[in-house]
Amino acid sequence: MTVPASPINHESGLLAHPAPKRARGRPRKTEDERDDGNRRHQLLTAAARLFRDKGFDATSTRDIAAAVGMHSGSPFYHFKSKDALLLAVMEEGMRSALARQADALHGPASASAASGPLVQIRRLIRAHFDTLLGPGNDFIPVMLYEHRSLNARQRASLAMLQVAYESAWTPVLEALHASGHLRAPVKLSRLLILGALNWSVQWFDEKKGASLDELADAAMALFLKES
């Protein structure tokens, strides 16, 4: 059998070899790309915990990557910057809070019970405590601590979620004011109640303090006039 002569590159004098064939279709995804949703959630959870414990400025992307077993540059596949990750943590917290609040007011458990304003405000308060102090509760505290670390555009984006969350309180407080259970003006009452509830992240200790139900009952007694 005659072996065909190899093509010669006349400029270099070396044997020319055909270029390797390019694989068809899309490039093969990396492990991070294949597990994008789960990795993103892991990064958000780890970032929320570290931002809360160490502060935004003192936490590096290397710290966050190490917490989830990723390479130091891997978070930038999921988030453009550490600032973008901070905003995503806060948005995740607000979306979770909105979902929990909607379930408290309109979920199956609320449909089977009385739905007057006293019952509704108690559900709102209890859901708010769960958002602040319940399992996986680092997201909203980060928003309370690090809100000033956002730029103006990020604050405006987050404000839309905050307005949606707080707007659910207004009709309930208006009904309580009309019935005489709430004496202070509605807008001031909303700001004072949420401000007081939010401060609980500074002092609450589930190992030493009251239960979340007991906190909700105490808040009801503090802010509302008995009929």
Protein described:
- With 227 residues, the protein is mainly alpha-helical.
- The protein has two domains: 34-79, Orthogonal Bundle (Arc Repressor Mutant, subunit A), CATH 1.10.10; 81-223, Orthogonal Bundle (Tetracycline Repressor, domain 2).
- Helix content is 64%, strand content 0%.
- α5 (82-106) packs antiparallel against α7, α7 packs across α12 and α10 (169-179) packs across α11 (186-203).
- The longest helix has 25 residues, at 82-106.
- The protein is elongated and about 60 Å long.
- Residues 1-20 and 25-29 have low confidence and may be disordered.
- Residues 60-79 bind DNA.
- This is Transcriptional regulator, TetR family.
- One of its GO terms (molecular function) is DNA-binding transcription factor activity.
In brief, what are we looking at here?
The protein contains 12 helices and no strands. The protein is mainly α and 227 residues long.
Topology, element by element:
Layout (H helix, E strand, L loop, with lengths): L30 H4 L1 H19 L6 H7 L7 H4 L3 H25 L1 H4 L5 H17 L5 H8 L5 H16 L1 H11 L6 H18 L8 H12 L4
Helix pairs in contact: 2-3, 2-5, 2-8, 5-7, 5-8, 5-9, 7-10, 7-11, 7-12, 10-11
GO molecular function: DNA-binding transcription factor activity; transcription cis-regulatory region binding
Keywords: Coiled coil, DNA-binding
Protein name: Transcriptional regulator, TetR family
